[in-house]
Amino acid sequence: MCALMTWDEELAQVIRKRWRIGGSFSLEDIYKYEEYFSGLHPRNHNIQQKLRQILQHLRDRDIIEFVDDSGTYRRLL
Q1: Distance CA 27, CA 3 (A)
Q2: What is the pLDDT of residues 27-47, one digit of tens each?
């Protein structure tokens, strides 16, 4: 039996698999995973908004940091 992951865990896993520590990515890069998250959460019709919320959670947990106000992030952990 596989335990369900939280949104935070799911997005952190995507970031860890795609970008190495210190690597930068954009909000548009994250939006490319919208279909993937839609498949995981078919009842959620606000995927982009949720992804932005989760990026804030990951920032607050020091997993990523906001680089600028143009939607650029950097992986910390």
Answers
A1: 28
A2: 999 999 999 999 999 999 999
